[in-house]
Specification:
By secondary structure, the protein is mostly helical. It folds into 2 domains: 39-381, no CATH class; 399-545. It contains 18 helices and 4 strands. It has a 4-stranded mixed β-sheet, sandwiched between helices. Helix 6 runs antiparallel to helix 12 (303-326).
Length: 546
């Protein structure tokens, strides 16, 4: 046979992964690799909160179930993630870096997949990096980025998961009606993120609902969207409820206790501090830019589009301010960065621009950068500084715990007076005193319950944790006089209880002593009825069940 002449050349199929995909994967892998390398940085703020994560994840690792075996204002997702880190690390504290790396990588790639092909490659890459840094940076949002801590890590997780819902809502809301019908799988993605939020920290699950409603109202394919939302939410929620053994009564009781306690310490005025208001201004300016431009033919933006842009922007800012007021967080509105990229895209899309408008492009990029770069740079600086100052294992013995498992934890001198007995050598001294007291008076296989905010001892001594207690025993924050666990549930099957003694004459320790006095106010009478003092030191009283 002779070769055919004039035949069209064979076309090669496009690559499965683009250059942008590889860049996003490499950037996320680098960030998460640094987080895993750090493990646990030198702790400089909210140092004692490292045991909130480790001790409760330790319970979960050994089979205890939140809400059923111990009270918790936070959902199981907060503990399952670090429990996976414990499994990978051999129960070492470095589990925190491993779990942040795992979760950060997964959510950053999920974020990238959400916007891939729907935004410019540079925007998708920026959002993936922003999400990875948001999750892995080792400091508390709103504080000094070199004040290393894993305290309140769940707020970072919450913002990152909420961003999945925000991005889906924004992309589905800001586009032309009928031109982008909602796919069921996009609804399933947002529904799964929504369920994870509800079982991470309920406040994040609640504030996700308005975004879902806005998306449904603006969607072109509502039936498909609702099917996907219900399917994604239902599958994840069913799996997590199954893990909780469908113990809805205890879960709802814990949430009611948290709501009662949080109502005593809620700071609504923090929504409108000058700094919080200023942080929201660039996003609103972006909304004005996106809604006020002329179309390609010089026509004014349609009213439906202007209304949607403003609804999305105002909802993002309002939710950000509300969440700020419910968190122990001084500043930072992470959601603004995610929403800013979408609004910049809305401002610069071809049907919005009237020709080659360089000034408009520069203004949109400038406003988006103001929303994204400050927090991204703070997170990046924190991650890099923590890696540079990674504990070497050669710290002075005074800064080390008398525990093989806790020896890798380094507590730097406290950065504020209020942390004097929850950080630095003073905290190490108090914990070592408690460890010695427990070793001297209990058998090797006996665990303890604490009258204190957190319970580090069972994890540090590698002992079984009694059932009972609370994941975080903070008075008028996670429980109150009006709503709290019953005495039977609090004391559980504990044979030993160790009570913290703070320096009550010193103003430095008033906050931590406040937690202890709140516990004693609620549970003190039952403590004395069920237990008797067995031994006492300068920092602790050990009680034994009668």
């Amino acid at each position: 046979m002779t070769a055919q002449t004039g035949a069209a050349p064979a076309q090669s199929s496009p690559p499965l992964l683009s250059t942008g995909d590889w860049l996003a994967a490499a950037a996320v892998a680098l960030i998460c690799g640094v987080a895993a390398y750090i493990g646990v940085p030198v702790l400089r703020q909210f140092e004692h909160e490292v045991f909130s994560i480790l001790s409760n994840a330790y319970r979960v690792y050994h089979g205890q179930v939140p809400h059923r075996d111990f009270a918790s204002a936070l959902g199981p997702v907060c503990l399952l993630i670090p429990a996976a880190g414990l499994a990978l690390s051999g129960l070492r504290p470095e589990a925190l870096g491993y779990s942040n790396a795992l979760f950060g990588g997964a959510i950053a790639l999920w974020t990238y997949a959400t916007v891939r092909g729907r935004l410019a490659a540079a925007g998708a890459l920026a959002l993936a990096v922003y999400a990875a840094l948001l999750i892995t940076a080792p400091y508390s949002l709103g504080y000094n980025p070199v004040a290393f801590t894993y305290g309140m890590f769940y707020n970072r997780y919450g913002y990152a998961l909420l961003a999945i819902v925000v991005l889906e809502c924004g992309l589905g809301t800001l586009r032309t009606p009928g031109g982008n019908p909602a796919a069921a799988w996009r609804g399933a993605s947002a529904g799964a993120a929504w369920a994870l939020l509800a079982f991470l920290k309920i406040s994040y699950g609640i504030v996700a609902a308005p975004f879902i409603v806005l998306w449904i109202l603006c969607a072109a394919g509502r039936k498909r969207l609702l099917l996907g939302l219900c399917g994604g939410f239902g599958v994840v929620a069913a799996a997590l409820l199954g893990y909780l053994r469908f113990d809805l009564a205890d879960m709802l009781n814990d949430l009611a206790c948290a709501a009662s306690g949080r109502g005593m310490s809620w700071r609504p005025a923090s929504m409108f501090t000058p700094l919080a208001v200023i942080e929201g201004v660039p996003l609103l300016l972006l909304a004005a830019l996106a809604s006020g431009g002329a179309g390609a033919a010089g026509s004014v933006e349609p009213a439906w589009r202007r209304a949607r842009i403003w609804a999305f922007a105002l909802l993002t800012v309002g939710v950000s301010w509300f969440v700020l007021s419910t968190n122990h967080q001084a500043m930072s509105l992470p959601l603004d960065g995610f929403a800013a990229v979408l609004l910049a895209d809305a401002a610069l899309r071809r049907e919005t621009l009237g020709g080659d408008d360089r000034a408009r492009w520069l203004l949109a990029m400038f406003l988006a950068a103001i929303c994204v770069l400050p927090l991204a740079l703070m997170n990046g600086v924190s991650l890099a500084a923590a890696a540079w100052n990674r504990p070497s294992g050669l710290a002075a013995p005074a800064g080390r715990l008398d525990s093989a498992r806790g020896a890798s934890l380094v507590f730097a001198p406290p950065m504020a007076k209020l942390t004097t007995e929850t950080g630095g050598t003073a905290y190490v001294e108090a914990l070592n005193d408690g460890l010695s007291l427990i070793r001297a008076n209990t058998a090797a296989g006996e665990g303890v319950l604490t009258i204190d905010e957190f319970n580090p001892f069972n994890y540090l001594l590698d002992r079984p944790t009694p059932r009972g207690g609370m994941a975080a025993a903070t008075y008028n924050y996670m429980f109150s006089d009006a709503r709290h666990p019953s005495a039977d549930r609090f004391f559980g099957d504990a044979r030993w209880v160790i009570e913290r003694k703070y320096s009550r004459t010193a103003e430095d320790f008033s906050i931590e002593d406040y937690w202890v006095q709140g516990l004693l106010k609620v549970f003190g009478p039952e403590l004395e009825r069920r237990f008797r003092p067995a031994a006492e030191t300068a920092h602790w009283v050990l009680w034994r069940r009668k």
